[in-house]
Amino acid sequence: MANGTIALSVTERARTIPLDEIDVSEPELWRTDSHWPYFERLRREDPVHYCARSAFGPYWSITKYHDIMAIDTNHQVFSSEAALGGITIDDETTDLRFPMFIAMDPPKHDEQRKAVSPAVSPANLQLFEPLIRERAARTLDNLPRDETFDWVDRVSETYEAKAAVGAECLAAFTELWNQRVNAPPRGDLVSVMAHADATRHMTPREYLGNLILLIVGGNDTTRNTITGSVLALNQNPDQYQKLRDNPALLPSMVSETIRWQTPLAHMRRTALQDIEFRGKHIKKGDKVVMWYVSGNRDGEVIENPDAYLIERAHPRNHLSFGFGIHRCVGNRLAELQLRVIWEEILKRFPVIEVVGEPQRVPSPFVKGYVNLPVRIPG
Ligand code: HEM
Question: Fewer CB atoms inside 10 Å of the end CB: C or N, the chain?
């Protein structure tokens, strides 16, 4: 009852607040998962919306599927450059000490992307698969039965653990680079970067920046999608049953979860020139936020977009990996990880039950979970 009342007032506020006061970046909207009615209203009434005041300064919101694609594929006008503010609504997020190609424009972006791409080529992914499966199996085999535990903590690493691992890793990676650069080329990421023309002369900071991008960036998003899949299947028991009855649906379930979760709620760009877009005047230097989370619920492109349906006709039609020159380089690796962990889950557990509400990350960028209480019947 109390929850129902809160839900109603959120919807009511989203429906009645003056358009120019809407600020979808408020962390509280993300912690409480109450951004949905605001985006619904923006898509309907003001799909290219200007917010003059927010904790992150003024910004434009792009909320419809095709408009997001139009901005994402126009890198000549909409820049990802770190020095201009980078790729998230929060200028402070971009760490200028560790340059990453996700926050660079051509030509440097293209050179570095091309150099690291072989690390996630289909052939290399085939090599990774047994390793991913072995790790997934080990983690799952250690899960308790018949007791409540936190899925985020046991199946993914916590943030604290990751930070500690990170510090150790930096020293180890520097050592690894020194070994690889003097040895014949191999298929692993470090060797690929140490030998490719575009990356072999990277400064140590660039090297670490790109490693952080590939390892940590890919980790958070995949972790939150795994947690999201457990939650989505519990909220939609008919879909969970369908999956158990027919594991061949796994690849499309994975894509549907990536759409439904949208692990990165947005990417940001900075306008390099004045431009008119859908009748609005975007000025040089303006911050433009492409809300993938909203485009993924655009009913003009995706049928019944709020429903979680693991048998969609075109499940990879979503915005979660972005579009254009920065489209996620790890998208096939992410799908592989999700598929493998679910193959191993289905082999072991008839069901994973969600037994309480998740706590969500209070961020308009990383759309994820702090914890999720679950129980696996023995
Ligand atoms: C479900 C999991 C994942 C999601 C939702 C995701 C999402 C994204 C998005 C939205 C972008 C930016 C697209 C744009 O600006 O147009 C991106 C770029 C990138 N992602 Fe992922 N990602 C995921 C997993 C991974 C993994 C596992 C890796 C590791 C290899 C990875 C590595 C990268 C890199 C290196 C870029 C920069 C590409 C560029 O700037 O050219 N991602 N990702």
Answer: N
